[in-house]
Design brief:
Chain A is of the alpha+beta class. Chain A is built from eleven helices and 20 strands. By secondary structure, chain B is of the alpha+beta class. Classes of the chains: A alpha+beta (about 500), B alpha+beta (about 220).
């Protein structure tokens, strides 16, 4: 009988030891990683952390008002001379030359603020989830700090572009339509056998709809041109008018000269085209990029449309800008700073865990070991979820670990106080229930934050969400069985 | 005893909040250097360097002012030095010292002093307003449902008051102690927000238990 009890006790001890070994293993992986030899060097196979711009570095872009100098030559009576003359000729004829920065007049406080708001809207529209914007109210210079990733270059080019949209007569350059005629810009997809095509659909407003109808009527493709590709691409690749090859009413006068429109963005010809039929819907569809079966290509084309849409929808920037500076700057929080923060965190944790051991003896020790394993597991989990760590995220980790510490403390306290009245499992279940009811608002907050399109807050939400979920499960699988075995072992 | 203790704490908190508001109105907040109007110079050192060495040179040549030293570009061989103000003389001294330290011949005259504008407070806090409102509304709905036995309106009002009061207290402390408003401010706001919520639920759970005990 006594031997049976001894065997049972040994079995429980072995179980506790096994759990401790598992925790140690998790701790080693979480804090130190798993190193394997790769091409004569040791490499950690555990995925690294994705860092946000405050910890990993950022792209700093500065844009300043462009100098648009207009030269005016005037005679002695103040009349403007249209012909182009050299400086010598101007002097000879007694004319005067005036140089004026046309853009400088636009650099007012209101326009700077308006430009900033436009840029913010563009950033939001193209899904930029983390940035810092600074504006100089005197010079109009705008500095942006952006996350560094595959899209950053495109975002930079988008931000600095004025976004002036024009449909002009390709020959006379008469402006037929502008941003003022645009209501909205949408992305549309069409899947055929050769893959998915992405379209930028420009929806014109009421005035624009009528204007566009008139334009399509005036610039209708004449009969002798219908079988030809009447679109000339300039500047961008593969952009064609959707209605190009549809059936159309043929013109009576087949020898009529083909008139074309040019679509311009910031004065640059994007495409030249004519229309196969009169468009009454007020929608202009332009295919962007080549059709593709690859999702990356389709997504890239769609992103391109979104960027153009963001630029066109709100109208042109009130001031013309040019990119003044564009560089990648590392975070001022370096590895050595992080090591100091981690060290401070370890010291605080060690003190708290020592209090736990001092107060609850062996139960405190087992819980402390479990706590360390939980922290390590959280660090592993964060590397394999879509969490991009920022300073907010670091605070999130500290909060999750603090909540876990409170949970463990409250379990140990209740075991100590009530172990003679109830079973350990019952005590733990009750503590779990009441504890999570108290922190439920935090969980609600975390879930809400996870869905916010602002990286620091989403990041904080995700760390709390995964952290609390993990701690609930981890304690249930590791801490609780250890404490249960230990209490039964008494 | 507990109630009188609470009264003292609330009274002290109110005094702190008033002092904080006065301080904020009179002196404003002390913004982190990265969010202020600053001057920046950049140097291409062309080789690996220690940030602390540059920091020491900056401290020696730019006077007694806080500086932010950052490595630039992927090769980490260029440096950006950010300070509240950099005069032409300070720039020359800084470049000279860097030349001495790294055996370079950089031209101080060609090193531009870049003016970096400040960040508006509203631009810093704008992205956080809507998430906070959404989260708070949902949490208040939860609290109203969970603690409906404790009088819904009173509980909601109490929670809203505690959350706002805690934030006011935090900003007052920031304002009085001149803790720089910057990267750590939002995490601090989030932490205080969570702590105030936990304080509320902890309090209501106790009250609810008492309420149930009395009624049974």
């Amino acid at each position: 009988m006594e031997e049976k009890q001894k065997t049972k006790r040994n079995g429980k001890g072995l179980k506790i030891l096994t759990i401790i070994l598992v925790v140690v293993l998790i701790t080693m992986i979480g804090f130190f990683g798993i190193y394997t030899q790769k091409q004569n060097r040791m490499e950690d196979v555990v995925k690294g952390y994705s860092l946000a711009m405050d910890l990993g570095g950022s792209r700093i872009v500065s844009i300043k008002p462009e100098e648009v100098t207009k030269t005016t030559i005037k005679d002695s009576e103040g009349n403007v001379i249209e012909e182009e003359l050299t400086d010598e000729e101007i002097n000879e004829k007694g004319y005067t030359k005036e140089e004026k920065d046309e853009n400088a007049e636009k650099v007012t406080k209101e326009n700077i603020e308006k430009t900033k708001q436009y840029i913010l809207k563009r950033l939001k529209r193209i899904g930029v989830q983390n940035y810092i914007i600074k504006t100089d109210d005197q010079t109009g210079e705008i500095t942006l700090e952006l996350e560094e990733n595959d899209d950053t270059d495109e975002i930079v080019s988008n931000v600095g572009t004025t976004g002036k949209f024009e449909i002009v007569d390709s020959e006379s350059q008469e402006v037929l339509m502008t941003n003022d005629d645009i209501k909205s810009v949408d992305v549309m997809y069409s899947t055929l056998t050769n893959g998915t095509s992405v379209y930028m659909v420009i929806n014109f407003n009421n005035d624009g709809k009528q204007k566009f109808q008139d334009v399509t009527e005036k610039y209708k493709t004449v009969e002798n041109k219908t079988d030809e590709n009447t679109t000339t691409e300039e500047g961008t690749e593969n952009e064609t008018a959707e209605n190009e090859t549809t059936d159309n009413e043929l013109s009576d006068d087949t020898k009529e000269e083909q008139k074309q429109i040019a679509l311009k963005i910031d004065g640059q010809d994007m495409m030249t085209t004519s229309f196969d039929e009169v468009i009454t819907t007020g929608k202009l569809s332009l295919s962007i990029g080549q059709p593709s079966t690859k999702s990356e290509v389709v997504n890239s084309n769609a992103k391109r449309v979104q960027r153009m849409a963001a630029m066109l929808e709100d109208g042109p920037l009130p001031i013309d800008y040019e990119v003044n500076g564009n560089e990648y700057v590392l975070s001022d929080i370096e590895t050595s700073d992080m090591q100091k923060i981690i060290l401070g965190f370890i010291i605080v944790s060690a003190i708290l865990l020592l209090i736990l051991i001092f107060k609850y003896k062996l139960n405190g020790l087992l819980s402390s070991i479990s706590f360390i394993g939980g922290a390590a597991l959280l660090l592993i989990l964060l590397r394999y979820t879509n969490v991009i760590l920022s300073i907010e995220g670091l605070f999130g980790i500290a909060i999750v670990l603090f909540i876990n510490y409170l949970l463990i403390t409250s379990i140990l306290k209740n075991i100590k106080e009530k172990e003679n009245e109830q079973t350990v499992l019952k005590i733990i279940k009750k503590t779990y229930g009441s504890f999570f009811l108290k922190v439920l608002p935090i969980y609600i907050m975390a879930v809400v934050f996870c869905f916010i399109d602002w990286l620091p807050i989403a990041n904080f939400g995700m760390v709390i969400f995964w952290g609390l979920l993990l701690m609930a499960l981890y304690n249930f699988i590791i801490t609780v069985p250890m404490l249960k075995l230990r209490e039964e072992d008494k | 005893m507990d109630k009188s203790k609470n009264k003292v704490i609330i009274l002290i908190s109110i005094v702190v909040i008033i002092a904080g508001i006065v301080m904020a109105v009179v002196k404003g907040f002390n913004f982190d250097l990265k969010y202020q109007d600053t001057k920046r110079i950049e140097l291409n050192i062309g080789k690996q360097f220690e940030r602390n060495d540059i920091k020491a040179i900056a401290k020696e040549t730019l006077g007694d002012q806080p500086v932010v030293i950052q490595k630039i570009e992927i090769y980490e061989d260029a440096v950006s030095v950010l300070a509240k103000d950099i005069s032409e003389e300070q720039r020359t001294n800084f470049v000279t010292k860097v030349n001495e330290k790294y055996g370079l011949e950089l031209n101080a005259e060609q090193t531009e002093i870049i003016t970096v504008p400040h960040t508006h407070l509203r631009d810093l806090i704008n992205p956080y307003i809507i998430p906070f409102i959404i989260a708070t509304v949902i949490i208040l709905v939860y609290i109203a449902a969970r603690y409906h036995k404790l009088k819904i309106l009173k509980t909601i009002a109490k929670t809203a008051f505690i959350v706002i009061f805690a934030q006011l207290l935090l900003f007052s402390i920031i304002s009085i102690t001149r803790i720089p408003v910057g990267r750590l401010t939002i995490p601090m706001v989030l932490t205080v927000y969570m702590l105030s919520l936990v304080y509320c639920t902890n309090k209501y759970e106790k009250e609810l238990k008492e309420h149930i005990d009395i009624n049974t």
